[in-house]
Amino acid sequence: MTQNERKQSGHIFELAGGEVRAWIEQDAIHIRAAAKGFNDPAELTASEARRLSLALKEMADIIET
Q: What is the 3-state secondary structure (H, E, C) of 8-49?
C-alpha cells in the first residue's frame, strides 16, 4: 500500500481496549482518549505511551508525504 493509499484508508490506531484512538482525516491527526462509558481520562502504561508516540509519528509522516 502506498503512503497516499494509507493516508486515504482511514487507518485507525487503538490502545487500551479502544479507550485511545488516533486516525487521519482530512490531512490532520484526530485523537480521542476517554474511558468508555464514563468519559474519564484514559490511562496508559509507559509501553502504551511509547506505542502511541510511534503511531503519531508515523501518521505525521503519512500526512507530510
A: HCCCEEEEHHHCEEEEEECCEEEEEECCCCCCCCCCCCHHHH
